[in-house]
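I'd like us to work through together how a protein chain folds, taking it slowly. We need material for that, and I hope you will provide a protein of your own picking. Go ahead whenever you are ready, and we will take it from there:
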Amino acid sequence: MPILPQASGPLAESFCWPVDPPRVRYRIDGSIDQVRGEIRGREKVGFTNPTSAPMARLTFRWPLGVGHEFQLTVNGEPTEVRGNTGGTDLADTWVANLSRPIGPGQPVELAVSFSLRAGSFKDEGRGVILTDWHPRLWWGRETHDDFAVKLALPESHVLATTGRHAANGVIRASGARSFGIFLGQGHKVIEGDAGGILVRCVFPPAAGECAALVLATALDAIGFYRERFKVYPQDALTIVPGGMDRPNGGYPIATGLVGLHAMEKMVERPELHWRWITAHEIGHQYWGEEVMEKDNPGWLWIGLGLYADREFIRARGLGLEQHRALLRRYTDGVKSYHDTTAGLTAEQHARVTFDFNNEVMHGKSLAIVSALSWMFGRDTFERIYRRCLAQFAGRQMGVAEFQRVCEEESRQDLTWFFEQWVRSNRYLAYGIASQECVQHGGRYLTEIMVERVGTLHMPIPVTCTFADGTKQSKVTDHLLDSAPVLFESEAPLAEAQLDPDGELAMVDVRLSEEEAEVHRAIDEMPWTSVGSRSLKILERAKTAGLRDMNLWFKLALALYDGEFYAEALDVLERLQMKARGDGGPGHQVSTALWRIAALVWQGHLLDLLGRREEAISSYREAARLYPETGGVRIQQDQYGVVIDADWIAARLGTPFQRVG
């Protein structure tokens, strides 16, 4: 065996995590007392030092807090552990200094006893979800490990976890990023088999119809993914109730364990929602669980997961409105002049004030992956997709690694693509500047002049439909800002379209720096004590053609705060008019909600202006529309105003009076 070089320098005397962490084996015997809110357990932890240097220190990841007990024995010797609270990378980390270092290639077994007092595990009908419930070795990043877990708990509870439950009560999971637990009282369980993969759905009794649909969809989706991507990463999947009381989607709880919110309220969402969210969360078992995200913020794993569920929904002919809505969230953010750069540092991400999760993590991530898949074509992109799944299984993959695989498989330098889409705030916008069709020698020659009006360069599909029903498609040259695309046909041109299939997230308006400046001015403006400054911003907003409803509403309240009631009333009338249409960019709530906000505040202002009959008319219209919101409340804490059905009813009886 060759002699490996030893580490040197100050770090060798201190502590470093290994480049390739070992795969750890956990054997856990534990008990859960839901009444006392307590978890107790013992675990045997085994691994082999994979490095060429001795390991003199180990770190564990486990929450710190009152009621946490942690005792460690290494090869039979008691070892002190100390909790650490500082630093992003070291928060909730316990450090053990070993009296005898673990030599290179040497196996070791750790014995851990622990107890966690987490307060009462209140069920409230949706069960209890536990994740970081046992001490786990921490190597500075997430890893895949093997688990054999046995848990004692009251017989009245349904237990659902990562892995498969064996007859002897031991639950096993191999190559798991994390081991999660769900406890439920009064819940039911249905099961199915997807080619050897056990699929379970745990649900409250009122959610039986939804659970049946979710289970059938899960079996179908897993079969589709296995056929399409040639692998499924685990031998079991369990779907459990999420923690929310509204059907707002779901999330990956742990490896092989996903939560769907409010299955008992199935009727509040269309069937497509339940089928899509089921397929979507299963997609995260590939991206996030099997292939772990390296970057922070990690948009890539979400985008690749969305690609998977989009292909499933497309193959089943269920329509792509869900995915088009995600793309619109991103393009709406662009039109609201948000900095949608995906490749942010942690410090930059901490300063973001808009809905980065919806606009970038979900919307732009799908836009980037969709643009790549369209450029490469399905065969090449899915070759990239399958290679990433195989090459990075049990490992982390970030944008740099993904770009390298894309370049190797496509044999193209893709710096131009990733610099624009990932590491900049550029946006995609092209338009048809002109189109001309002339007859020539019994045939027709068509010229479509395509012009770049955005800031991002990209090839764009152009499709022409001719009078005889035939179609032709060509692609523009992304190096040119403006260039003709030529077609020859037997019939005259009927219609020309850019990206008719909606594969690319294109912004449909021309943005201006003047409007961007107004956006920034209103965005940075405080909600109160603005004074006459709000009047100056109002004139700029009118001149710039401001479209964002959020900012118009903020400006109206700033004018109200400065006692410019007539001007505020004018703004709210504009807002109500816009809310009757498509809502414009930045539209993140229903148009009915916007109309109610505008109507109620118009009533407030009319009351203050002494126009009571007009105020009552506004309140009555708001009361008529309010049921369309589903009971959502609009809250302005700075004025002590909470708009709901009771507030509107009160204003019909008593005029609004300004306090303070």
